[in-house]
């Protein structure tokens, strides 16, 4: 497709320009030549850089509004809402809940609860617990759960993102706590299938904590299997290597809001990587633990 | 706004849950407790983390399609198309071009050229030089320029992004080569004004090289002045600290395409940070060097 660079005159121009550039460098102010930042690079820890291959793609979308439902068919989707929807779902299933119904909106949550007498219903909107609902954060909600019981769960971004992905080949809930377990499961269960890491975001906004979570999941997937990462997936990987998760979560916009409400322990819990092997998968409209 | 966490029962639940968590940890498989990645964190090099402040916002959009023209008023916009539109504009003005007309499309470019007899017209679409145009990459194009002459320039993403920002308070072209000079200029010339770093992207796709460029510019701006970074700006900063620019550019999708066409020298040139003090600003529809 591209031929200009193989054209001998173009090569000659480039060599001439490189000589020209050295002259230009001589005119550059010395203070500009020294890099401003003392950066330690550690990209050698990344799994091999992408090459042309037949490996399935690994992509990241930074907010649920960017999902094109027509492009979900055949894809494995991992929804990521680190503060707190998917972290809560992972923790709730780990704490013994049998199934979590991810509600699309308030009416959907009420209808789902009406079909399940005695079910626990938890929810928040804009980080506030909804009236009459159990709290929507992992540690606080776990105290309301009944072992073997169901949960109806409504959040501003995460459960809506899960509900929007019904057309995918498979839908999982990903968090920092289950990144490696989830990655190994996806590689084993869906060989050769493209994977989309869907950051829930925050009402159309980019969420730092979800992007960092996507970076950890992308690295875990590429450690476990062979994928062709897109530019967005690589950017998420690099970002997740530029800061530690606890710092990222408490620095994020949502993290600062919930820390201001005294929920630092919830943030610290959500920031802990690879603490459990719970793999929540969407089956018949509810999230259940996938079989290993 | 948020009060649940200040509620004594909620604090009690959280403490109980923390005790519960330690029990849960006892059930965790030991191999999952050890972090998988040997990550060296260096976030202490970042300028102070954001706090509630009256500092102007610093935001990053990952593709030109995400621009809301209604929200440009009062904002300083820096358009970033590292491979190669804005890198080329910086280099062309540094090499002596008087003004660069950023064309919206082919017809716009032809009309602009017709109004400027003898002007150099350069352009590419999807990384191929357009027929009858000078090449659109920094080093190759510089050999076609006349000192003091004008340039009409059309690219797939970058010049279209610049043309789409006419409603902003000011529009600049940013690249790795002029990051620090541009940041110092913006801080001095636009005190207190919000800044939007607009990644051109690639036909609606996220471009790694532009996001890395935005990260370098965000860090340069926060080194020079006081800004409140959004989550997207912080993510770009972290990503730019997770990999060195040369590696990022050659790893990106566009970088792999142009490297395949033999343009490695152009990539290396575009990846060099802070090599010049050229600050291209949009004035009366053309990009010219801003006065220091």
- Kindly state the mean pLDDT of chain A as a whole number? 85
Question: Class of the largest domain in chain A in CATH?
Answer: Alpha Beta
Number of strands of chain A: 11
- Determine the fraction of residues in helical runs of chain A and give it as a percent range: 25-40%
Distance between the termini of chain A: 45 Å
CATH architecture of the largest domain in chain A: Alpha-Beta Complex
CATH H-level superfamily of the largest domain in chain A: ComB-like
Widest sheet, order of strands of chain A: 7-2-8-1-9
Enzyme class (chains A, B): hydrolase
Protein name (chains A, B): Probable 2-phosphosulfolactate phosphatase
EC number (chains A, B): 3.1.3.71
Pfam family, one (chains A, B): 2-ph_phosp
